[in-house]
Amino acid sequence: MLEFFVRAIVVVACVLTSQFAFAEELLVGLAEADITPPVGFPMAGYYHERLADGQRDPLQAKAVVLRQGNVSAAFVVADLTGVARDLYKQVVQQASAATGISEQHIVLSATHSHTAPDYSGQLYSHLKKAADDRDANSYSQKLIDGCVSALVTANSAAQPASIVAGRGQQKVPVAFNRRFVMKDGSVKTWQSYTSSDVLRAAGPIDPEVGLLAFKSADGEKTVGVVSNFALHLDTVGGTQWSGDYPYYIEQSLRKRFGEKMTSVFGLGCCGDINHSNPNAKERNKTDFIGNAIADTINAALPDLKPVKETRLQVRSTTVNLPMPEVTQHELSRAEELIPIARAGGKVAFFDLVSAYKAVVQDQLQNKTPRTDCETLLSWGLSHEWRGIGKTLPVDVTTITIGRDVAIVFLPGEVFVELGLAIKQASPYSTTMIFELSNCVETMYIPTRAAYAGGSYEVTNSAVEPGSGEMLVEAALTLLRESASAE
Questions:
Q1: Domain of 92?
Q2: Residue 404 shares a structural domain with residue 334
Q3: 317, 477 contact by CB (below 8 A)
Q4: pLDDT tens by residue, 19-73
Q5: Is residue 479 part of a domain?
Q6: What are the start-end ranges of the H helices in 39-117?
Q7: Pairwise CA distance, residues 415 & 144, whole Å
Q8: CB-hemisphere CA count at 13 Å for 441?
Q9: What is the rounded CA–CA span in Å between residue 76 and residue 407?
C-alpha cells in the first residue's frame, strides 16, 4: 500500500442511524489525504485527451466521520470530476471493514474539478485483475487507499466538539444559469446576451452558501468548516492538477483559523450552472470566485447558530432511475465516430457526446455489450453495474443533526431547480445538498421540463425524464421521516 500524507483534525458532531442513542456523546473526526496523480496522467473533464504537465495545487480526499455510541456515519469529498461506481464500492467496502461503519452509512462525493484525473479506465483495468496481481503502485490504488485512509484516520480522530450551522448569501455574482431560451423557442447551453437570438436565462441560480462549522468542545476554536455552493468546478482550465475554486476557500479559512483546520466543500446542485457571465466578455478567474465565496463564508460564520439538540440520524434509500433504450443505429454511429475523434478528426460535439453515451449505456444495460466498449471507452466502464439492466439503482442518503441541520447526498449532476425544490420543502433550517455522490454513471439529471428543451445536458443524460423528480421525492421522504422521528 502506498504511503499517504494524511492529517487528522479533531472535531465534532452527533450521529444516529434509524436508531437513537441519546445518552451517548456526539463525536466528529476530520481528516484528509493527498490523491494528486503523477505528471503525465490523463486529465478528465473534456472530450479530448489532456495529459497533466504539472500541479497548480494538490488534490485531496477529505473525510468527515460522525459517531455516537455504536452508530456512525461518514462521508468523503474528493477532488475528482466524478465518482465511478467501482471506486465507490472499493472505498466503502474497505473503509467499512477497517472502521466498522456500515457501508450504507458511508458516502463518497466528488467536487467535479475539471483539472482532476481521468481515472476510471485505469481503475477498470486495475480491478479486472485478481487482487494479488494488481499494481500496488498504480494511481488507481493510490486513489482507493487515499480515500480509505482519510476515513480511517477521521474515525480514529473523532472527539467531542460543538456545532454551529446556518447559511450565507452569495451577493458577488459568480454563478450563472448556463441554459438560455432563444427567440425561436428553443433552449441552448453556453450562450451570451451579445447574441440577438437570446431572450433570457432558462432557469435560476441558488445563491445560498450552506455552512456547518465544528468547534472545540469549549467552543473556542474552529477546527473544521463544511461549505456547500452550487457552481460548476470548471474555472481553471489548462493541464495542471487543481482542486479549482474550493482551494481558495480553504486557504482563506486557514488564514483565519490556522493551518490545522479542515475545509470541506460539497458541490451543490449545479448541472445547469457555471461561472460564465452572459453579460461579460471575460469570465471570472478561479481565485476571484474562490475568494468571493470565502468572503461570504467568513462574513456569515459569526452569525451561525449553535446546534443545541445534536441527535443524529442517517437514512438511505435506493431509487431505480430508468434509462432510455439504446438503438443499434446509435451504437453503429458511435463505432464510426469515436475512432475518428481519437485520431484527431473533426466530429460535431453533440454527435460525439451522444456516441460516448450510447456505448456507456450499452455496457450498463447488457452483460454482453453490442460494442467493443473496452476499446471505445476511456471512461464510463463499470464492473459493478455492467449489465445492471434498464434502471440504475442509485443511492439517496440523508444525515440530519437534531432539528436544525440536514445534508442530502444525490447522484449525478443535478439541475439547480431540483436542489431548490428540496431546500424549499425541507423541514430543516439548514439543508445542504451534495451532488455527484456514490456514482457518476447517471451523467446529467435535468428537470422534466428541461428534457423538452433539449441541448447539451439533456443530450448527456443517461436517465429518462422524471428521474430528477424521483430523487426530490426520495430525499424529502427521508428528511420528513427524520424530522418526525421521536
A1: 1-315+393-441
A2: no
A3: yes
A4: 444 447 889 999 999 999 999 999 998 888 899 999 999 999 999 999 988 889 9
A5: no
A6: 85-99
A7: 29
A8: 33
A9: 13
Q: Which residues of 285-300 are buried (b: 16+ CB within 10 A; e: fewer)?
A: ebebbbbbbbbbbbeb
Please state the domain count of the chain: 2
Rounded to whole angstroms, how far apart are CA atoms 66 and 75?
A: 9
The answer as to whether 329 is a domain residue is yes
User: Is 287 domain-assigned?
Assistant: yes
CB atoms within 10 A of CB 449: 14
Do 328 and 311 sit in the same domain of this protein?
no
Check whether residue 257 and residue 334 sit in a common domain: no
Instruction: Assess whether 256 and 363 both reside in one domain.
Output: no
Paired strand residues for 409: 397, 434
Q: List CB contacts of 208: < 8 A, sequence separation 6 or more.
A: 167, 168, 169, 170, 229, 423
Grid cell locating 342: 481519437
Of 71, 53, 4, 54, nearest in space to 32 by CA: 4
Ordered per-residue pLDDT tens for the chain, 486 residues: 433 333 333 333 333 334 444 447 889 999 999 999 999 999 998 888 899 999 999 999 999 999 988 889 999 999 999 999 999 999 999 999 999 999 999 999 999 999 999 999 999 999 999 999 999 999 999 999 999 999 999 999 999 989 999 999 999 999 999 999 999 999 999 999 999 999 999 999 999 999 999 998 888 899 999 999 999 999 999 999 999 999 999 999 999 999 999 999 999 999 999 999 999 989 999 999 999 999 999 999 999 999 988 888 999 999 999 999 999 999 999 999 999 999 999 999 999 999 999 999 999 999 999 999 999 998 899 999 999 999 999 999 999 999 999 999 999 999 999 999 999 999 999 999 999 999 999 999 999 999 999 999 999 999 999 999 999 999 999 999 999 996
Centroid of chain to Cα 377: 22
Nine-digit cell at 38?
503523477
- Which of 361, 347, 343 is closest to 463 using CA atoms? 361
Strand residue runs (E) in 99-250: 106-110, 159-160, 162-169, 176-177, 179-182, 187-189, 198-201, 208-215, 222-229, 240-241
What DSSP state is assigned to residue 125?
Answer: H
* Dist CA 405 CA 164 (whole Å): 9
